[in-house]
Amino acid sequence: MAYRSLQPDQVARVHVHDVRTGDDTVIFESADVLLEAPNWSLDGQTLLLNGNGVLWSLAPEVGSSLRQITHDGLPDINNDHVLDPDGESIYLSATDSHIYRAALSGGPVTKITPDDGFKHYLHGVSPDRKRLAYVQIPESGPPGVLMVIAATGGEPTLVDTGAGHIDGPEWSPDGEWIYLNSEHWATQPGHAQVCRIRETGGELERLVESDTVDWFPHLSPDGSKAVYIEFPTGTQGHPADLPVTIVLVDTNDWTTPLERISLPGGQGTINVNSWSPDSTQFAYVSYPIGNA
Hints:
Blueprint: E1 12-18, E2 24-30, E3 36-40, E4 47-51, E5 54-58, E6 67-69, E7 71-72, E8 77-83, E9 89-94, E10 99-103, E11 107-111, E12 118-125, E13 131-138, E14 145-150, E15 157-159, E16 166-171, E17 178-182, E18 193-197, E19 205-206, E20 213-219, E21 225-231, E22 242-250, E23 259-265, E24 281-286
Parallel strand pairs: 7-11
Antiparallel strand pairs: 1-2, 1-24, 3-4, 4-5, 5-6, 8-9, 9-10, 10-11, 12-13, 13-14, 14-15, 16-17, 17-18, 18-19, 20-21, 21-22, 22-23
């Protein structure tokens, strides 16, 4: 699978959104690199994004410049990458369907996932740094299932989420829950909904009941708020270049949005957790074409 590229007359815009004021700022725009999925560094000084198959750093402020981070022996990466809570390393999903650990400073990488004939898409690192949560998908395609593996590699463990394709699993800041989206309750193909489950298994707890297709719930570091992305009703998967909405909620009430942000986007917009370490801002990417 090759990395994505911009369409003619399309740009990638990196936004920083302040949840205190509602201010939304485009800090960077590229007509050359299709940037995706910002992570926010633990020191608050850097966004980490993928584009053209490699990792980039970008200061979260207007006027900043992209800087490529070079890794040795790393295949092209996709938009599933998550920081290690140590603040110095990152886990990356690559186009060879494996997960790698790498230093944010660059250099050599270490492959984590086994050669088991499945595709592996990372989404979560446990707060204690010991485990990774990823989606395992057969070479023939979905449905995906939730797997947990030691951060050093080894034999993964299945977390039974019942019937229905899942994606986007990541731990809550307190490590008590794994948040994800699932088609468990699907009334038509692709009808994903936001939910959570204990790492030890059990029943899925549905957090939002909607007619839209809802993906990638991300909790703020203090656990008080969350964002997820809402695709149009009838969407299958999480494709690019659709009118989508980022929904901001209080985690005590997922049914009453605090804010809704409409944009041209989808795939790449907010695939991974992009909250600032102080829980006051999050980053995302839009992909307007022409005058959109």
